[in-house]
Amino acid sequence: ENYLLGVGRADCTGPVAEIPLMGYANPDQVGGGLLMRLYSRAFIVADLDDCKRVVFVSADIGMVSQRLRLEVLKKLKSKYGDLYQQDNVILSGTHTHSGPGGYFQYTLFWITSKGLIRPSLNAIVNGIVKSIDIAHQNMKRGRLFINRGTVENSQINRSPFSYLENPASERSRYSSNTDKEMVMLKMVDGNGQELGLISWFAVHPVSMNNTNHLVNSDNMGYASYLFEQEKNKGMLPREGSFVAAFASSNLGDVSPNTKGPFCVNTGESCDNPQSTCPVGGATMCMAMGPGNDMFDSTRIIGQNIYMKARELYEKASQEVTGPLRSAHQWVNMSDVSVELNATHTVKTCKPALGHSFAAGTIDGVGAFNFTQGSVEGDPFWDEIRDQLLGEPSNETKTCHKPKPILFSTGEMTRPHPWHPDIVDVQIIAIGSLAIVAVPGEFTTMSGRRLREAVKREFDSHGMPRMDVVIAGLCNVYTHYITTYEEYQAQRYEAASTIYGPHTLSAYIQLYRGLARAIATNTVQDLSRGPEPPVFNIGNVTLVPPLTADRVPANKTFGDVLQEVRQQYRATEVAEVTFVGANPRNSAENAFEHNFLTVERHTSTSDSWQVVQNDASWDTRFYWTKGFLGRSNVTIEWHIPHGTEPGVYRIRYFGHYKKKQSNNHAVYIAFEGTSSAFEIT
Fold first, then answer.
1. Active-site annotation holder among 162, 255, 275, 496
2. pTM of the model as a whole
3. Is 655 annotated to bind ligand?
4. Which end of the chain has less Cβ packing within 10 Å, N or C?
């Protein structure tokens, strides 16, 4: 054995209804149920004498926000003292676009998330901390193995015309305009018992598109689900100790929608530099995945990724050995001087978003028409709108050229700054593996340049043959990072490169500095940098308040409104509708609530055995809000091939909110059960 290892997984789903989903920036895309639960997966590696430890967390969320990271670090400090700090803990988001939003302190993100939503933020903070707790409590002596391989048929570059702006001499060194390589770290304990794995692969988890309202972890989460189901044999989803994280990488311009962009209205291709259609323009141009619908595409892409991971896992033989090191700095990214060469120095800019930001991408068309209506007359949101329409300064305009500025966020400060200035840069080295934690979405070529620069830096300071992997969406969200050449084309990714044309060069300079410090053992001499701010924010939100739940006449919570059929065959859908209550009641009152079970009848013992729950891929939980506090819940079970014949039933578990005479509210648990049905 070379290390002490611990793995942990904990639920971080949060409220599955009425909260805007984070990713497509579409304010109409709010949660309305659950397809798969979201998890935080934590991995701790310590050396055998336990002087040094490092933590990598991959969470099924859109991205890690600064507020989220600061609150997690604060909780870890109160529990563990100085054991887990900003330098040795990486928090990474998978970048699913179907998780609840509202966990940001910078104002820009409030617009589409409807503010700062405490229950959403708390669920993620608590889930991440709990996953680290579980890993911490289960440290064992063990070994690490690394493997890498190519994943086919799972990605396309969604800004190929920007990619072509990169020098031909550079492009000719690569066979593809996406990075197809998966890097995998396998963990086993001293007795050869399998603990878990981390896979890094660059693709956007946007197989589920912006019409989806069910909370889920998309293609990457489905890959985790398949791997964990396979290794935790005979267990329900969310049970079992094996943890499989499928983490993000330099996915900035990479889409899983492999059929490419088509006009939704006419069916013709819109693979052109403007991603626009002859009728209806850019709003009609959408990329299609390989499946019949978004669920099917999620399954196909997730399965591809899982199959490759399984092969790499089984064959992994290259052992990782060597010391653990970590380096971290906070940097004011709006003011970095970059030495391009001996004579030429350039600077980064105050953050700003360009016009194409509002257009969105072929994976999700922009819906950023915030200036229209919806919150007229609310002075708080009116002030936000007035700032949105403000003019950028000449300095910012010049700095960002050729970007036409839409929102000069670096110059908007009310009620709080709109975008971060202080950003984390961080590298953790586990023996020969260097994990470069980046605060956003690096494009394919940006990631290649960064990896190469970091590797070269290690090489030239006595650490040859390092495996350098990029972990995406870590620590704080700063949108996209394109190359200088891609920036000139000003498509969506470039318009969202918020610190200007030299953003990538600045990051390369900073990460080289971290690599050099690790290689020369001078991490203690790195400046800590300026600490990020924590804004004092109450619950500022447009999410409707929880009201008392009500039932139709002569009905009670959990009553069946629409019954199942008596008989089904595999591949059919069993469906039942109940008198429901707001699922937010449950999220705010039970840490690990399960909304549903599918149960099979065992005649020998006359009992019911749970075979599926709300974390199962085959179950879907829909919540429909009615008038005056009424709501319905519909549960679907998509009966998989190979389901054992027999008698089954579906159950629903919820909480309703009731006002008491003293005006205090109580939350009361209830359940509902379908009739029994037969699978033949």
1. 255
2. 0.97
3. no
4. C
